[in-house]
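Posting for a labmate who doesn't have an account.
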Amino acid sequence: MATSSSADPTIAPAPRRRGLIAAVAGATVVLAAIAAVVALWPHGDAAAKPARFQSADKRFSLALPAGWHALRGAELRQVPSAPSAVLRRADGTGIVIVHERPALASSSRSLTRELTAQVARRFRGVQPVSARTVALPGGPAYVYTFARPAAGRVQSIAVAPRTGRTYTLDAVAGSGARDVAAQVGAILRSFDTTNPAPRP
């Protein structure tokens, strides 16, 4: 069964004074930005290429936008869920966590059911938004996105099956932050399991 990697990734909460309506509106904007970036990654020299993070075992790499940093060494080993990578925006408004899992045999349809049920058990007030398969450099990934308006967050779970293993990427952005959503989408879209990794 596909599992989301982290119980509730920590990012700075949205100000409560904006209220639930503002949070929902902000989440809608962020979701649109994430969907646009995941679906329409820019091609050619017109797109400025960010730095890249490569995992310690060199099995995958990710874009590392300006203002983001990757946990390394002892800092990464201190994360309880033993992730393969954690990318975090310096101001705390975005985070992407990567875990390596055993190979999965689930179809996209069964993944949707499993993730919907799991998310509903873990969080209250969840609003499922989209579920789609996207093409990544090393193969396909199934991306499930949902909003948590009361928490001021938008989250995506990407499941990327690869030979003999499956990677899960948990991404969180604060609602109302379009620039963060764009960066999160770019990180998800950049997930690459080819070797050698692309250069910045």
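Reply:
Got it, the structure tokens are right above this. DSSP finds four helices and nine strands in the chain.
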